[in-house]
Amino acid sequence: MTVTSVSMTSDLRLARVFVSFINNSRSIESLMDELNSRIKFYKYHVSQKWHAKFMPELEFHYDESLKRAE
Length: 70
Hints:
By secondary structure, the chain is α+β, with helices and mostly antiparallel strands. The protein has helices at about 30-35, 40-45, 65-70; strands at about 1-10, 15-20, 55-60. It contains three helices and three strands. The protein has a three-stranded mixed beta sheet with strand order 1-2-3. It is globular. The two termini are about 15 Å apart.
């Protein structure tokens, strides 16, 4: 998995994380479902390094740019 970019809203309440997968044997849908099912886990670990009043909500989106570049 590669995080290709992160886009945050102006109020820092939402972070859209764009990911790409290279040479994966599983379907993109199953990988994205697994990422989205573990959002609480990722939020906990990011919040350990994020020094702000609140932790933004995370959304994972598949980014096809690396696939198109091949």
